[in-house]
Amino acid sequence: MRVLLVNVPHPSIGSRIPDDHLPPLGLLAIGGPLIDDGHAVRLIDAEFGPMSIAEVVSEATGFAPDAVLFGHSGSTSGHPVIAAVACALVKVMPRVLIVYGGVFPTYHWREILHDEPYVSAIVRGEGEETARRLMRALEYGRDLADIAGIAFRDVSGPRATQPAPVIANLDACRIGWELIDHARYSYWGGLRAVVVQFSRGCPHLCNYCGQRGFWTRWRHRDPVRFAKELARLHREQGVKVINFADENPTVSKKVWRAFLEALIAENVDLILVGSTRADDIVRDADILHLYKKAGWQRFLLGLENTDERTLELIRKGATTAVDREAIRLLRQHGILSMATWVVGFEEETDRDHWRGLKQLLAYDPDQVQLLYVTPHRWTPYFRLAAERRVIQPDRRRWDYKHQVLATRHMAPWRVLAWFKFTEMVLQCRPKAIWRVLFQRDAGLRHAMRWYTQMGRRVWPHEILEFLRARRLKWGPSVREFWGAPQDDEEQSMTATRPERRVGRREAA
Ligand code: B12
Ligand code: SF4
């Protein structure tokens, strides 16, 4: 079959503000196995430009695909863009099959199949094996009901098949790197870069997490083979920056250490960046020198909040003392820390923001990223937030960088004022400026300067966005806006009601 993968242009800050673009790993992960199965596969990455819908349509028709496959890293906020592009494509190619995968459609399959008639099938959960089986079935006109891990329409409406088994051996899946020209992709201020995954999933239970349940259980690649793949990308493709997509790569100290040692043995000059948990950093205090030697330059630590009650509410399983110690240890080993900080909890007041700002200053992270609490329907947190009021009806803005829910005691402008003020104080305090200007390590200096540059663009952009965006004063409840909680389906590959058929009313 002729298979076209499309990475749509995303309107979010992460896609539009930096001049860099990262390869769409999810689509490449699907593409590799499909190439090996003999399909003619091509990728259109519309993030470059960004391409208009008309340009995507024109390039797509030139390839004359049998099937167009969509997926995206932005998930929830990316969905409306995918819907618009898919709709435009089927207008000019009415016989083309539209296949859709990723986190958001895995859970919202009922609504998508109900509202978007042009979608032929949705791949639920991890896609490598399922996409192969689905494309074969579509090619030979076999019954889709026999394919595990998908959702499609039959005579009674949208239905999901039984969950696909998790991929036990991640090394068996090949990334279709040949689908991209590495020279186009960069990160960290113009350095050639890729996104990779050492592991999938996370054993922790934060109740707002939209990723953990998707992968169902934590698995990892062979540490030595993985290190060799990174070294090969460096030697053959000139890749310099490795961005880890892992939710939590450091879960097993033993395995992680094996990876670090294997990469050090490869003797390649790489910059590694990614996210992990503060408690793993503290646990690994005795091997942080290996992190540094392997090339780690920055860890994003999801601190989320410093209020112990809020941490309890979101089941973060962290303590403020550990978070603080992790930042200290990273600095001691010449690794930058970026703290994410979440605002917009229902009962927040000025006093909470002030206390949070003081706490953040005491933590002293190198970089800070503020986010708005954004419930996903498949997480337990959604249930807690189900009766809160939506103020942002545009789903493209459900990207953590727009306030989407009303808070009880503060107007949105006031939350934004605290949001921007906190960022400004953290990034403009003398200590932070000193680190940006005079950081002794040239690599870290570059990283700090690049981030500051991004911050300078993001800061006014977010204020303008706020002024431009249409907001509701007191909109529908979260439950009315998205539908009933779906947390019982959170484990995407052990779903509880696989074969359930839904009627039109329920799907709506
Ligand atoms: C790398 C990354 C980015 C990169 C994107 C690079 C790129 N070109 O893809 C950058 C930094 C640009 C970025 C930006 C944003 N991101 Co981001 N990002 C990630 C991150 C860390 C990894 C994504 C990834 O590669 N995963 C690994 C791949 C293999 O998994 P996957 O994409 O899910 O694909 C698998 C399956 O889903 C499925 N699949 C996926 N697509 C398809 C398609 C088909 C046809 C099939 C069959 C199967 C299939 O098969 C794949 C293999 O099993 C995730 C967090 C995470 N741990 O996943 C956040 C994450 C996806 N990002 C998120 C967000 C919010 C954003 C932004 C909106 C932030 C912002 N406000 O700017 C933007 C959106 C930009 C965009 N283009 O999507 C959220 C999405 C939340 C949600 N559920 O809505 C996440 C989950 C972070 C989080 N913890 O909340 N991001
Ligand atoms: S530690 Fe991170 S990835 Fe793991 S459950 Fe919590 S938020 Fe999700």
User: From the helix content, strand content and strand pairing, which structural class follows?
Assistant: alpha/beta
Main β-sheet, spatial strand arrangement: 2-1-3-4-5-6-7
Query: Count of DSSP helices?
Result: 21
Could you say how many structural domains there are in total? 2
User: Distance N terminus to C terminus?
Assistant: 33 Å
Strand content: 15-25%
For the record, the CATH class of the largest domain is: Alpha Beta
The proportion of residues forming helix, as a percent range, comes to 40-55%
CATH architecture of the largest domain: Alpha-Beta Horseshoe
What is bound: which ligands? cobalamin, iron/sulfur cluster
Give a description of the structure.
The chain has 508 residues and is α/β, with parallel strands linked by helices. The chain has two domains: 2-167, Rossmann fold; 181-468, pyruvate-formate lyase- activating enzyme (Alpha-Beta Horseshoe). It is 42% helix and 15% strand. The chain has helices spanning 13-16, 25-36, 53-63, 79-92, 103-107, 109-115, 128-140, 212-215, 223-237, 253-266, 278-283, 288-294, 308-313, 320-332, 350-363, 380-385, 412-428, 430-438, 442-468, 478-482, 504-507; strands at residues 2-7, 40-45, 67-70, 97-101, 121-123, 150-154, 157-160, 186-187, 191-196, 199-200, 219-220, 241-244, 271-276, 296-304, 336-343, 367-372. A seven-stranded mixed beta sheet has the order 2-1-3-4-5-6-7, with helices on both faces. Strand 12, helix 10 (253-266) and strand 13 form a beta-alpha-beta unit. Helix 9 (223-237) packs parallel to helix 10 and helix 10 (253-266) runs parallel beside helix 12. The chain starts with a strand and ends with a helix. The relative contact order is 0.11. Bound molecules: cobalamin and iron/sulfur cluster. Cobalamin binds at residues 10, 12-15, 22-27, 29-30, 69-78, 99-104, 123, 126-128, 131, 195, 197, 210-211, 243, 245, 247, 376, 399-401.
